[in-house]
Specification:
Strand content of chain A: under 5%
Largest sheet of chain B: 6 strands, parallel
Oligomer: heterodimer
Strand order of the largest sheet of chain B: 2-1-3-4-5-11
CATH topology of chain A: ABC transporter involved in vitamin B12 uptake, BtuC
CATH topology of the largest domain in chain B: Rossmann fold
Strand content of chain B: 15-25%
Order of helices and strands of chain A: HHHHHHHEHEEHHHHEHHH
Distance between the termini of chain B: 67 Å
Number of helices of chain B: 12
Shape of chain A: globular
Number of domains of chain A: 1
Chain lengths: 343, 333
Amino acid sequence: MEINVKSEESSHGADAQQTDAGAGLRRAWQALRGIRSGPLVLLIAAMVGIFWVLSPYFGTAENLSTTALGFAINGIVVIGMVLTLISGGVDLSVGSVLAVVGIVTARFIDAGIGHEFAVLIGFAAGLLCGLVNGLLIGKVGLNPLITTLGMMGMARGASFVITQGTSISLYNKLSPAMTYVGSGAILGVPMIVVAFLLVAVVGDVLFRRAGAARKVFYLGSNEKAAILSGLNVGRLKIGVYIFSGLLAAAAGILTICRFKVATPLAGNGLELTAISAAVIGGASLNGGEGSAFGSALGILMLALIRNILVLENVSVYWQDLIAGIILIGAVLIDHMSHQRRTR
Amino acid sequence: MKRKLILVIALLAIVGIAASFAQKSPLTGDKKETYYMITFLSGAEYWQGCFLGFQEAADQLGVTVKYTGTPEYDITKAVTVFDQVVAMKPAGIALACMNPEPFIEPINKAIKAGIKVVTFDTDSPNSNRGTYVSTDNYSAGVSAGKWAAQKIGGKGAVIYTLRPGQLNLEQRLAGFKAALEKYPDIKIVANGNGEGDTAKAATVVGQMLQAHPETNFVFCANGIEMIGAANAVKEANKKIPVLGFDMDNAILDQIKADVAWATIAQDTWSMGFWSLMSMYTWKHSLLSPMTAWKSGGFAPLPQYIQTGVALITKENTQEFLMRPKKAADSWGK
């Protein structure tokens, strides 16, 4: 509000050009406020500005590309997670599915069965996990939290059983295509980051345009109404968890491409990071709300916070505490800005 | 003529010696020269010992050291933090590799950029790291197996806890089991997942003791689980020796109080000290083991610096008590 008043005053007294600029800024501000993720964009912009001043290393191409690489794979998982949240559920199994898909794929590569085939089997494993989640939640009617918690244990356990606790090294065993996906770059942007951007953009368009996605929003905001209006809720839910499982599978395969090793502990704790990112990005734990774009911003923000803590060499004992405070602060700002808008 | 020559040579020698005295020792560094120590599960008491050695070497050399890492056991985060530190272009990085393969390319890239990287505690053997400063986990496990066999007189039933997927623990266990294979009268009767947690280790050990009352030895591949295991033995009113790994004051207290029998300690101070010394001497080209190491692309350091292990029992705990903890205070700002 204050900003509007000030720019109004200055535009009255100044020449025509300045008035144009003031009006443009004001329009941009209104537009930003208009979209759901507007406040988050501003918040991140402010963070980038502050971090840039704080650390001479923050703005370097190397640091930015490294930070992007650090969250890109997790970001792909977040896009799947947010759809489960929108549907009124949650998928706690994403981190474990990431691990087991990596392990299964690596096992088949190790067996010399052909890389493309191994990757296909990896995706099939992810699909299977999602399908089981979806059937139990959508058809049987089990609680999503408990069902996916069970799948989290099963997938992690399967990783341990297959590997007997050790890692599967793929050094010099990846195909050129997989190596390129894992460590190559287009115009200086790492392939993994490109993959994340692709998933985020396609996800955002799908979530907003596709009929099925709109049904998921409807289902999440009022399940009873959705059932009464004749939606096949069970099938929708199966689709949602398969989507999440497939994206976790993609993340698992990208992880082994990047690190050239499959470890049974990969993706440990990822589910909480993914939920945080989705909620920062405007998803509601009660369902019916959330966006791919916002979730991508959420995971970006979490990565930026971690980055500045490292660059400023903040004591490791303080890191979690500070990251937690900033997280709650960000969610609070977002929450309040929306409250004001809806008032 | 001859005498003149001798005089000139003598004079030159004196000037040379004087000049060399006036020259700064190459072991005097610059405060602007910064070395990082990066670990996974950052903040654990174990790393404090490492950083103490790192810090004391830095004080002697007059360079700056910093500590950072990831509190989680998460490889993506670990590599990201390493890359972010590399982006700041420090003089060197001593790295504890959570997992060997993922660090190969990041380490090689850093070294190409002129940053001296050595590994300590856990290695990435296929990378171009300058050296690896550590206890070899496998042979430490072998020592553990031998000490265990001695303690129970070469026969009995052994149980152990493990945390699947944590590489250094797996290596210790592999060594432990290999050593026990030489004793036909010792059987490993059970193992359980301690999950790197005191309470969970206590529960699982308690259950194993129920199922196998003949147990006469308990082994834990890390200290956190060992505290739980020792308490489970005590709660079961049994007198069974418990052997653990690692050392901190809580573990030493358990041994002093006779709750646990012994622990195997790694020389963490030496890991930190020799990591920094390695990087510094490498950085300042103070080593010339072969004339062409630079053009040949070798690091001039020994490939592996073995820091060794010690068995700590009630008799010698005093000698291992940790020094006043200034290490933790110098971590970060």
